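Much of what follows relies on a compact textual record of a protein's fold. A record is reproduced here so that you can trace the correspondence yourselves:

. . .
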Amino acid sequence: MNTTIRLGGITANSVVDGPGLRTVVFLQGCPRRCPGCQNPELLDAGGGREATLEEVLQEIQGTLSPITRGITFSGGDPLMQPEALKELITRLREAFPRLDVWVFTGSRYEEVQHLPLLDQIDVLVDGPFEQDKKDLDLAFRGSANQRLIDVPKSRKTGRVVEWQPGGA
């Protein structure tokens, strides 16, 4: 399968996009246009570049070290490309099973919980950025309305379970 994805960029060794040392894959496109958006250059769904999943996997592999804890997908909104993202995460899990997977989205969990790709995600950081709720003291998110959702536990219990350090 020669699936492509709209890529904004890849950053190695982040410590602000989830616990531990992480590779962050920035995907293009977001319909929300939240005032104060952290990544306005990623809003345009036609921006960035089109890359095959194989190219993205090779780029990710080049960023990994023995102490890399996980991969974070940010944007834009990665859930705008759900099929390609699901395939990419599936391949990542096969190639690097020790890494956890975090995904940021402007959607609420309740709006996207039906998406099959959530079966591949450890933590979903949900909710739009709200400038009036901006809080620089929050870990791994920009505004107080956003939640860190432990997806496997939420799917198992049928209710939202927030991620706790030491978890996924």
Observations:
- The longest helix spans residues 82-95.
- The CA atoms of residues 70 and 99 lie 4 Å apart.
